[in-house]
């Protein structure tokens, strides 16, 4: 089956602080979104990338794609996004031509994911997984708490899940297209990743090897790390 990638890039980036929408902020002088697009197009299996742009930024994203060098074998489509990540992904899925049987969803906010991770996810879906997510073991111990009513209040700890069984999940997440589309039609509750919706359908999801460099740029410190990773690559 042919493989397409949907890149949700429509978020404001509130946690990064004031400035342009996160996907348009630069790393090494290049917009984060362009890094993310290049990371996806670097996979020979990917023939279409759908970028879900900030609602009023579709024209700007189109011109960015035109001015930055991208592989000729990949097609690009830009659609405006929605209020939530979930809605943005759904709008991206609606733009997919019928011939794409495998779809990856990749956060623009994970600009530095290595192509090997992309290929590992695609391979798992090609081999028959309905959904595959890149995942890493955790460095920190995780506690479940009773969330405080007000910020700063101490929070009672309820449980400590066994760390060895926990994984931090990244993107790109890969899917049999029909299953992800069905998940977006049927699951209405709030979720924090696409695979979670597929889990709610009762469909199996597998975790494959993630990568440290697939971290999400969320807060200002992440920009420092991303610039350092880029600088190391350019040595
Ligand atoms: N996203 C999107 N549409 C939205 C919200 C988020 O396409 N309405 C995208 C973001 O652009 C990002 C990805 O979803 O590439 C992951 O979301 P996150 O890291 O939370 O980005 P933001 O929502 O932009 O950041 P914040 O939550 O700090 O505002
Ligand atoms: Mg967000």
TrEMBL record:
One of its GO terms (molecular function) is 2-C-methyl-D-erythritol 4-phosphate cytidylyltransferase activity. InterPro entries: IspD (IPR001228), IspD/TarI (IPR034683), IspD/TarI_cytidylyltransf_bact (IPR050088), ISPD_synthase_CS (IPR018294), Nucleotide-diphossugar_trans (IPR029044). The record marks 163, 216 as: Positions MEP for the nucleophilic attack. HAMAP family: IspD. Catalyzes the formation of 4-diphosphocytidyl-2-C-methyl-D-erythritol from CTP and 2-C-methyl-D-erythritol 4-phosphate (MEP). Belongs to the IspD/TarI cytidylyltransferase family. IspD subfamily. This is 2-C-methyl-D-erythritol 4-phosphate cytidylyltransferase. It comes from Streptomyces griseosporeus.
